[in-house]
Design goal:
The complex is a heterodimer of chains A (336) and B (300). Chain A is an alpha/beta fold. Chain A contains 12 helices and 14 strands. Classes of the chains: A alpha/beta (336), B mainly alpha (300).
Chain lengths: 336, 300
């Protein structure tokens, strides 16, 4: 009894200490926040301070960019409560088309083709009276990667990728892809079927979204894919450019040949249009009803004006200038 | 034919002490038990070592009092920490009265009918339903039908439902562990059933009930999946209020950071795990204190 009581008292003391520490911290929070607030907000000196809320959901790929924009926008407009969630492109659209969010992040265009058993996202939005703008904001280079010690697969054609990844593929060793390659078993890693990355890759490589072999190692966590490829000399996988860039000590990119020679994934090759077809556009979809609110309009305008300062540090690639110009024009037309 | 007769010669004696063999069996059982706990401890130590070495360098006052940021070294967890505590308290406040009342009914009042047996079995089954299913239910009922939106109260109601079976089962176990002599004694003194429950059974069962509820709250605080479905955000820079949309909790913050490509984000994910562990430790410590205090005067 006594031992358990002294233990209890010790825990109580710890609790009191931690609570006191938290309390002290909370009191100092506003000052530290004020001192770190930067002044990098060109043209964001609005006349009247904005208030309200901007609710954003959608792609976890676009999340880091939107988070960066939201962070800086929030510093300049502390009265606006911006929240960003990451339910995925598809999960986000469900919510967006149910009028629950102001804007959706998307790593692929909204789906417009109805199927026999399901309405498309565009139809769901239309039925609910939700209209929206599709604004391109940045580009991601989907990267095909192999282990650091893989000496043979430096360049693959899109036909070879399709051979490996298409539905019903029977490729199990590297020399089935190219007779020059060793007769080693090939280990495939890729995102799971709920991912926008999976949708995009299967569409441009295999010809139809979601059409893929299923006997590979899937994971929704890109870091797990990196670990998988880094741990096996015979592995091959695909995921977003940011995960390649951060792990160049463990994995390396495969150049892609889509008929005009081998092209490495890089910002330069995406910008000059040669990295095809795996350069994928990233979008934001603000709803036109939400844009009627000044805080949402200001946020989206700030997004398009400043997104290029954030894409690089979050591991993405700037959108083509004409894409961004088109987005800005579409926004201004809608705001008139 | 004679070969098929039962072997009388060489049959085992009626009593064979075999002390060495029996002792060996006893020792090897003990060894197996110790190996089991050793293995579990090893896993725990490795986990803690990994989290502490990765996360500790990132923990400072700015981390506790800061808001999320795209730069890991500037990111903080205050909105998530406050969200977790706020939702944890609401979950406790909702599940305590409902769960305890349901358990008292089932254990002290309900007759042993087929219907009630089915009810009990179903409550036990509910404890095994995956948490994501509660999330989908919470989204449909609380967030959408009841128009609570993506608010902390919608999340708290969902989590309260999630832990309700655990609370009910723990409370029922605690009530059952009170010896029947207590009930009979109360009746012998002329108590009504309510007086018996109120004055005799509940105080005796209180330590077990409180422990069950606090452990269930700790589970609720560690959940991410159902709250993501209900609609928690991840980037939130303000402190959540119960009925206002927009909140996040620690497990979601951990999940978000752990999925980022940059290594420093994995570091702050580990740091957030440490904060979550401390929060859990505080709750479990509270359970121990409450248990010790409430059981001090118990005697039977």
């Amino acid at each position: 009894m006594t031992t358990s009581r002294t233990r209890g008292l010790a825990l109580l003391a710890t609790a009191a200490f931690v609570i006191a520490a938290c309390g002290g911290g909370a009191a100092t929070a506003p000052t530290s926040g004020a001192t770190t607030a930067p002044t990098m907000t060109p043209g964001a000196t609005a006349a009247a301070p904005l208030s309200g809320a901007v609710n954003i959901d959608g792609s976890s790929t676009v999340y880091p960019i939107t988070e960066a924009v939201a962070e800086e926008f929030q510093k300049a407009n502390s009265g606006v409560k911006v929240t960003v969630a990451f339910a995925g492109t598809g999960g986000g659209f469900k919510r967006f088309c149910n009028n629950e969010t102001d804007m959706n992040d998307a790593s692929r265009p909204i789906k417009t083709a109805d199927t026999a058993d399901a309405k498309s996202e565009a139809t769901l939005c239309k039925d609910a009276g939700v209209s929206y703008l599709e604004l391109g904001i940045a580009t991601d280079a989907l990267s095909v990667v192999v282990n650091k010690n893989n000496t043979w697969a430096t360049c693959l054609t899109t036909a070879q990728l399709k051979l490996m990844w298409d539905q019903g593929s029977t490729v199990s060793t590297w020399n089935q892809v190219d007779p020059m390659f060793p007769a080693e078993p090939i280990k495939l890693f890729g995102p799971g079927p709920d991912s926008g990355t999976f949708d995009y890759f299967t569409e441009v490589i295999n010809g139809k979204a979601k059409q893929s072999r299923s006997d590979y190692t899937p994971s929704e966590d890109d870091n797990a894919l990196v670990t998988g490829v880094a741990g096996d000399k015979d592995a091959l996988g695909y995921f977003g450019f940011a995960y390649l860039e951060e792990n160049l000590d463990k994995i390396k990119a495969v150049a892609i040949d889509s008929g005009k020679g081998c092209v490495e994934p890089s910002a330069a090759n995406v910008n000059n249009g040669t990295y095809k077809p795996l350069a994928r556009p990233l979008f934001i979809y603000p709803s036109t009803r939400a844009l009627l609110r000044p805080e949402v309009a200001a946020f989206v305008r700030y997004y398009l004006d400043n997104v290029n300062t954030f894409v690089d540090e979050t591991g993405y690639i700037e959108a083509q200038p004409d894409v961004l110009a088109k987005s800005k024009a579409a926004l201004e037309a809608a705001l008139k | 034919m004679s070969t098929a007769s039962p072997p009388a010669v060489g049959a085992r004696p009626r009593f064979e002490p075999q002390i060495a063999r029996r002792k060996l069996a006893g020792t090897s059982f003990l060894g197996a038990c110790m190996a089991a706990i050793g293995l579990l401890l090893l896993a725990l130590v490795l986990l803690l070592y990994d989290v502490i070495t990765k996360g500790l360098p990132y923990i400072d006052l700015d981390f506790i009092t800061g808001t999320p940021s795209r730069r890991p070294e500037q990111a903080g967890i205050l909105p998530a920490l406050v969200g977790s505590i706020e939702i944890g308290l609401m979950v406790g406040a909702i599940s305590f009265p409902l769960g305890v009342a349901a358990a008292i009914y089932l254990e002290e009042y309900a007759a042993n009918t087929l219907f009630n047996r089915i009810l009990r079995t179903n409550i036990s089954n509910l404890a095994g339903v995956p948490s994501i299913v509660y999330g989908i239910f919470g989204l449909a009922l609380f967030a959408r039908a009841l128009q609570l939106g993506r608010s902390p109260i919608a999340a708290a109601l969902t989590l309260a439902l999630l832990i309700m079976p655990v609370v009910i089962i723990a409370t029922m176990e605690a009530l059952r562990s009170v010896p029947d002599s207590q009930r009979e004694g109360a009746y012998a003194l002329g108590a009504t059933r309510w007086q018996m429950v109120r004055r005799s059974i509940l105080p005796a069962a209180a330590p077990g009930i409180m422990t069950g509820i606090i452990l269930a709250m700790a589970r609720a605080i560690g959940e991410a999946a159902p709250i993501i479905v209900v609609g928690a955000a991840s980037f939130v820079t303000f402190l959540p209020t119960p009925f206002q949309e927009g909140f996040t909790v620690l497990p979601i913050q951990v999940y978000q950071w752990a999925s980022r490509p940059q290594d420093a984000f994995h570091g702050i994910a580990a740091a957030a795990i440490l904060v979550l562990l401390v929060l859990m430790l505080l709750l479990n410590g509270l359970a121990i204190i409450v248990r010790a205090r409430l059981s001090r005067h118990l005697q039977w």
